[in-house]
Structures are given as structure tokens and as C-alpha cells.
Specification:
alpha/beta, binds NADP nicotinamide-adenine-dinucleotide phosphate, single chain, 6-stranded parallel sheet
């Protein structure tokens, strides 16, 4: 089999190598990989900015979908021929997070999916909605489930509520689609007017260019009575102050990303005086992934795939994600 391996930190440290096929344990399955999707986290991992103790070599990318081609003697959960996606934290099945469950994640420290084959425990995969093609299905494990956990599992979003979504990357566009699915109003920010126009076609009710309007949090709040009910916070230090200006008393800030830095300077009084709930999100358990897939299948929600690269073009795909030019998800097709 072939696998992309990170042999030293940096995109230039990726090498496409011929590696031995892994033997199959009794509870394991072998996948013929079909497609993988990129997340901003993969870039951080590859650059050595996510985990300073990352063990190399490592097969990168947390997200992928494959066809089951072999099952171990004790496997009953899936069968040969099933099309499944790997779970981001494959041992976190349901319930509250535990350190050992949420630290064991694909694409670092566990092996990722950017290979022609992947062997893993049968418990750590879910069947994907049949109507999605392989490139669309590959986008679900991290970005989609993170948005689902933020809006649905923790945010309990309801029709008529307003959510604020930052940027037009993978997590934020899934959050936009889930907001529309639940009858909520979405306020979307972006650095690009062209991307905002595309967000409106997906159902964004209000759009704000955050490079032109530095007070975008206040602007978002002005489109509501008391402020937005929930913020999908992907900017971190660069955006939290504006998010606190946008959110309503009693509202939720779903802390997801750190695109604009990790150490914010904010007045804590804004949190306590308004009873704001700051909810950390780490993707989600398998149970949430299965629930989300039911909703995606029922509502026939189609993930926004910006661009598909070939398996040999993995470094170019990562550089494209790094450029920030994308709208939604960047995908690598592994096999037809
Ligand atoms: N906690 C978790 O479970 C979890 C899960 C997934 C992702 N994340 C994190 O969430 C963040 C987003 O991930 P992603 O995979 O969706 O990234 P992505 O697809 O690469 O999206 C990045 C987009 O965010 C916007 N952006 C960049 N810097 C920004 C800033 N300072 N303020 C506002 N928007 C900004 C840009 O949108 P425009 O081009 O429209 O301006 C950019 O295209 C990352 O920090 C990632 O590590 C966390």
C-alpha cells in the first residue's frame, strides 16, 4: 500500500512511500481509502504547532472515508462493502469526554487516513449517508461534527434564534447549513465579499466583511434584539472580544478555534455580567456523528466541497488550505 508520511515537520516533510500492509486483529477492519478531507488542524499538526511532542513518522489527516474490504473474526458492527468514515476520536463512543478518549485522535497521535489502506478498530467508524459521494462524505468527521456539537448538542439551537459564524471555512459553513436546517438565522462574517455572496446563497441572513467592519460584533448584535444566541468562535484571541459584544445575555460562545491566536485579552466582566456560557468543543463522540448523519440523510444536506485534489497532490492541497482561498472543504481523492 501507499501512504503519505510526515517524516519531518512542515509540508515539505511529507513523503509518499510504499509501506507494508498492516496485519488485521480480530476486532479490526481494513478500509480501501476513497477520499480524505483537510482540516486546519492538519496544517497545525504538520507544521508542529499542534503537538510539540508529535511522534514521527506519522500518516497525516484525521478525516477520510473508505470501503470495508476485510473484517476481523469478531467484527459484527460493519461488513465488507460498507462505506464508512473514521471517527476523529475513535475511542470516544458517547457521553462525557475523558482525557484518555479525547487525546487519542486520528492524524496525530494516532495514524491518520492519507493512505490507500487504513486498518483500525471497528468501533471507531460510522457508516456515511449513501446519497453523498466519496468526496462529500470525507468532510464529515471533524468539521461537520464540530459544528453539530456546537449548535445542536451543546447549543440546543432552535428556530428563530440567531447564530454568528466567523469566516467561511469548513466548520463555519457546516454551522451555517445546520443553522438553516434548524430554522435559525445566521450572521456570517468573512474577509471576502465574494465569499459572503456565496454564503447568502446558502441561507445566510446577514453578512459582514470583518476586514472592512472592525466592530463586526456590535454590527451583528444590531441585527437582533438582545444579541446573538450563539457564536461559533473559530478566531480565538483575534475575535473573542467582538464575539462578547455580539452575544446576548445568557448566550453561548462555542470555543472552537484559534485562527487568530490563543491568548486573548478580554474583560472577564463581559462574561459574568451577561451570564455568557463559554463552551469548549472538541469535535464530538461517535454517538453525535451517527445522530448528525441521520439529520444529513433526512434533510439531504450536501457538504460544500471547494476543491478536490489527486492523491499525488497532497502537499498542493495543504498549501491551498494554507492560502485561505477556500470556501468550505478541501478534499483529496484517494481512489475512484
Ligand atoms: N475544537 C475543535 O473541535 C475544532 C474542530 C475543527 C476545527 N477547529 C479549529 O477551528 C478553526 C477553523 O477550522 P477550519 O478547519 O474550519 O478552518 P478552515 O476551513 O481553514 O477555515 C478558515 C477560515 O476562517 C476564516 N478566518 C481565518 N482567520 C480568521 C480570523 N482571524 N477571524 C475570523 N475568521 C478567520 C477565513 O474565512 P474567510 O476567508 O471567509 O475570511 C478562513 O478561510 C481552526 O482554528 C481549527 O483548528 C477546532
Amino acid at each position: 500500500m501507499k501512504a503519505w508520511q510526515l517524516t519531518r515537520l512542515g509540508i515539505e516533510g511529507l513523503e509518499l512511500l510504499e509501506v507494508d500492509r498492516a496485519p488485521l486483529g480480530p476486532r479490526e477492519i481494513r478500509l480501501r481509502m476513497l477520499a480524505c478531507a483537510l482540516n486546519y488542524r492538519d496544517l497545525l499538526m504538520i507544521r508542529g504547532e499542534y503537538d510539540p511532542r508529535l511522534q514521527l513518522p506519522l500518516i497525516p489527516l484525521s478525516d477520510g472515508v473508505g470501503e470495508v474490504v476485510e473484517v476481523g473474526a469478531e467484527v459484527t458492527r460493519v461488513a465488507v462493502g460498507d462505506r464508512v468514515a473514521g471517527c476523529f476520536a475513535p475511542r470516544w463512543i458517547a457521553g462525557r469526554p475523558r482525557r484518555d478518549l479525547i487525546r487519542a485522535t486520528r492524524g496525530g497521535p494516532l495514524p491518520g487516513m492519507l493512505a490507500t489502506e487504513h486498518v483500525c478498530d471497528a468501533e471507531g467508524v460510522v457508516r456515511v449517508p449513501p446519497f453523498l459521494d466519496d468526496t462529500q462524505a470525507a468532510t464529515l468527521p471533524c468539521a461537520a461534527l464540530t459544528a453539530w456539537s456546537a449548535l445542536v448538542t451543546h447549543g440546543r439551537i432552535r428556530a428563530g434564534q440567531t447564530v454568528l459564524l466567523q469566516g467561511t471555512g469548513g466548520v463555519s459553513l457546516f454551522a451555517l447549513q445546520f443553522a438553516v436546517m434548524h430554522g435559525a438565522r445566521a450572521v456570517v462574517t468573512s474577509s471576502s465579499d465574494a465569499k459572503l455572496a456565496r454564503a447568502r446563497t446558502l441561507g445566510a441572513a446577514v453578512t459582514i466583511n470583518y476586514t472592512q467592519d472592525r466592530h463586526w460584533g456590535k454590527t451583528a448584535a444590531a441585527h437582533t434584539e438582545e444579541g446573538v444566541d450563539l457564536v461559533v468562535e473559530v478566531g480565538g484571541a483575534g475575535t473573542l472580544d467582538q464575539s462578547l459584544r455580539a452575544v446576548r445575555p445568557g448566550g453561548v460562545i462555542a470555543m472552537i478555534g484559534v485562527l487568530g491566536g490563543v491568548a486573548p485579552t478580554v474583560a472577564l466582566t463581559k462574561i459574568l455580567m451577561n451570564e455568557v456560557r463559554v463552551q469548549g468543543i472538541l469535535v464530538g463522540p461517535r454517538e453525535g456523528f451517527e445522530e448528525m448523519n441521520q439529520a444529513i440523510a433526512t434533510r439531504r444536506l450536501t457538504p460544500v466541497v471547494d476543491r478536490v485534489f489527486g492523491f499525488d497532490e497532497a502537499p498542493a492541497a495543504l498549501r491551498y488550505l494554507e492560502s485561505g482561498a477556500h470556501f468550505g472543504k478541501v478534499v483529496i481523492r484517494v481512489a475512484d
